[in-house]
Design a protein that fits this description.
Bound molecules: nicotinamide-adenine-dinucleotide, UDP-4-deoxy-4-formamido-beta-L-arabinopyranose
Order of helices and strands: EHEHEHEHHEHEEHEEEHEEHEHHH
Distance between the termini: 40 Å
Largest sheet: 7 strands, parallel
Structural class: alpha/beta
Shape: globular
Number of strands: 13
Length: about 350
């Protein structure tokens, strides 16, 4: 049985991917420092799958601890590297924290891969590397642009670190997955997005507004050059996204990768505006949302959505969930967060 190391595996996307990996028959080891997630997630994963991944809590930006882990835990076939700090706004206030955490963690992982012979890695990248594209939809050949935030820059630099390390060490094989906007929750409503404090992202703010935790949603701008004036994104169901990670792992383990370093866009190929998201949420859940249109948020781009043809063809993967079903899953998770609420709303 192949053993997969999932860093950041108690986080939002990581936990959903651990579920898919366990259900696909993989053995999973999770490393997470619990800086942005709770240990309770492991209980939920076990409830969903009937299996509990191995777990170790430590900071992957600590080189000694990371070397020690790889020296102790053998038989790792591949790594999915989710662990990172990801709050755009916080990265502007604390750039050094973001550069240290996100760059050093990846460098420690790559050093250990070379030292301990772990060939394969799947890396969490982001469509943020494209900035505001000149042409839409975005393909993997669309030029990357200067990042709008230190966080976005860590993703771009991490891609370069991965690309260059693989070029210098062809024994390594890696895939960077550029996520568009992951949203929703597992259909069991046992795992989902756990934003700490006031959510920065749209969907958790919508669900917390619907739950009465937030007074109203602020729609950041309706003066964009879009059909209804609000900004457009490509919102992808988190379970569809997680399934793509299992496919990427299988591609690497089967040696089906065409190059040693590959990049794939993971989106739906459909752009949806903020106001459309509000209306779709109301239709999907029957809950009316109170919102006010305010000014644009600094750093926001106007519109982006993916050309998914390369990922669909090469990975044999496609995002299948509908937006209403996805937003309903986010709402069911919000209603059922249970004991998590203390963790979420502190
Ligand atoms: P998340 O914060 O829920 O998960 C990240 C996990 O990594 C958390 O559990 C956190 O505790 C852990 N972590 C952070 N630094 C660590 C360290 N030094 N050592 C060990 N564990 C550490 O975030 P997420 O939304 O699941 O994102 C996962 C990955 O996907 C990140 O790399 C993020 O940049 C990327 N991504 C996320 C989105 C999104 O909108 N959520 C979009 C594109 C890319
Ligand atoms: C989506 C749209 C907002 C909140 C960010 C990061 C990106 C990635 C995904 C990590 C935008 C609007 C939002 C609100 C609103 N994260 N909005 N009111 O900004 O596309 O991407 O998360 O990799 O790197 O940049 O996602 O959910 O914050 O915003 O009107 O209260 O919703 O202006 O148009 P974004 P988001």
């Amino acid at each position: 049985m192949n053993k997969i190391l999932v860093t950041g595996g108690t986080g939002y996307i990581g936990s959903h991917t651990v579920v898919e990996l366990l259900q696909a028959g993989y053995e999973v080891v999770v490393v997470d420092d619990l800086s942005n997630s709770g240990i309770e997630v492991l209980d939920s994963i076990e409830k969903i799958t009937g299996k509990r991944p191995l777990f170790e809590k430590f900071d992957l930006s600590d080189r000694e601890l990371t070397l020690d882990f790889f020296g102790r835990v053998s038989g790792i076939s591949a790594i999915i590297h989710f662990a990172a700090s990801k709050a755009v706004g916080e990265s502007v206030e604390k750039p050094l924290l973001y550069y240290r955490n996100n760059l050093v963690s990846l460098m420690n992982i790559l050093e250990c891969q070379l030292k301990f012979g772990v060939q394969h890695i799947v890396f969490s990248s982001s469509c943020t590397v494209y900035g505001q594209p000149d042409h839409l939809p975005v393909t993997e050949a669309t030029p990357r642009k200067d990042a709008e935030s230190p966080y976005g820059n860590t993703k771009r630099v991490n891609e370069d670190i991965l690309r260059d390390t693989i070029a210098a060490n062809p024994v390594l094989k890696g895939i960077a997955l550029r996520y568009f906007n992951p949203v929703g929750a597992h259909p069991s409503a046992l795992i989902g997005e756990l934003p700490l404090g006031v959510p920065q992202n749209l969907v958790p703010f919508i669900t917390q507004t619907a739950a009465g935790i937030r007074d109203e949603l602020h729609v950041f701008g309706d003066d964009y050059n879009t059909p209804d004036g609000s900004a457009i994104r490509d919102y992808i169901n988190v379970v569809d996204l997680s399934k793509a990670h299992v496919v990427a792992i299988e591609r690497l383990l089967a040696g089906k990768n065409r190059q040693n370093y590959e990049v794939f866009n993971l989106g739906t190929g459909k752009g949806v505006s903020v106001l459309e998201m509000v209306r779709t949420f109301e239709k999907a859940t029957g809950v009316n949302l109170k919102y006010t249109v305010v000014g644009r948020r600094a750093g926001d781009i106007e519109k982006i959505w993916a050309d998914t043809s390369y990922a669909n063809r090469e990975l044999g993967w496609k995002a299948l969930s509908g937006l209403e079903e996805t937003l309903r899953s986010a709402w069911e998770w919000e209603k059922g967060c249970g004991g998590y609420k203390l963790l979420i709303y502190k």
